[in-house]
Specification:
Blueprint: E1 2-4, H1 10-23, E2 32-34, H2 42-56, E3 62-71, H3 75-87, E4 93-97, H4 105-110, E5 113-115, H5 124-142
Parallel strand pairs: 1-2, 1-4, 3-4, 3-5
Helix pairs in contact: 1-5, 3-5
């Protein structure tokens, strides 16, 4: 997972650590933060932040963008998406959470899928925990475990 900006609140960091630890039972996971561009106009911030994200993006990774305009999925559908990629031998999925102004057009074009977690708006900090929880939930669904009922 890649995201823009440091995780500020300790309770958010605890949630990230909790779900990243749970995911490690099923799959390796790497969390990467890139510096937020403060004080810049929107387009400049998008360009600079996405250039930083691009540098951290593994070459063979399939890029999944988190964006409010993306496709919404149920948890079972998201689990099926994870399972399909696993079964097709996808080397790596890289989920990206942009900064306050979103993604640049060139970075957006690199994505293979764009997802929205909800029609509601969440802070970028909270989205990190929500996405990790859904990835964990997806793995438990794929493994027939009772977490999702």
């Amino acid at each position: 997972m890649l995201w823009v900006g440091k995780t500020q609140q300790e309770w958010v960091r605890s949630g990230i650590d909790e779900y990243a630890g749970r995911i490690k039972r099923y799959s390796p996971i790497e969390l990467t933060e890139v510096r937020e561009e403060k004080g810049a106009i929107a387009e400049t911030a998008r360009q600079l932040e996405c250039a930083r994200l691009e540098k951290q993006l593994p070459k063979a990774a399939q890029l999944i963008l988190l964006d409010e305009q993306g496709e919404e999925m149920t948890s079972p559908a998201f689990a099926a998406f994870l399972g399909k990629n696993r079964d097709m031998g996808t080397a790596e999925l890289a989920f990206a959470i942009g900064g306050a102004y979103g993604f640049s057009a060139s970075f957006r074009a690199r994505g293979v899928k764009t997802l929205a977690l909800s029609k509601m708006t969440f802070t970028h900090q909270m989205v990190r925990v929500f996405l990790l929880e859904q990835i964990y939930r997806g793995f438990t669904i794929l493994n027939g475990e009772p977490y999702h009922h």
